[in-house]
Amino acid sequence: MADKEQVPDGTGPIDKVADLGRDIGEYIRQQRSNAKISLRQLSKLAGVSNPYLSQIERGMRKPSAEILQQIAKGLRISAEALYVQAGILDLPTGGPVPDAIRADADLTERQKQVLLDIYESFRRENQAGGRPEQQHEAAAETKE
């Protein structure tokens, strides 16, 4: 029997690139909607043509890093957030708390980033000097 002809199942490399285009487009549309900015307004703010921006949002075009940076500026969110969404950057390591912060649709990208920065600073501090409970117990023992 001859080799079976492979039937496209939506999992090939080209399909994955198309999915990334749709994902970033949907993400941009969601951010624009959250910011209550029209497509035309974002087009002006970002310096990207209205038809091109529309094609990005519909997943028909995959924007370059430079275009994503312009869009991020127009949306007043971090370019890194768009780069991660577009698959240009890897998602920062997380856990349940960072994942929950990133998933919260009620927070702006700026608010999410500030919360993540504070959370990570606490984690670094605790790793350097032990956990807060341990520090408190050690301080109580030295007073006795």
UniProtKB/TrEMBL annotation:
Keywords: DNA-binding
SMART domains: HTH_XRE
CDD domains: HTH_XRE (cd00093)
Region (Disordered): 123-144
GO molecular function, one term: DNA-binding transcription factor activity
Domain of life: Bacteria
Gene Ontology CC entries for this record: cytosol
Protein's recorded name: XRE family transcriptional regulator
Tagged with keyword Lipoprotein: no
Biased composition (Basic and acidic residues): 133-144
Domain HTH cro/C1-type positions: 28-82
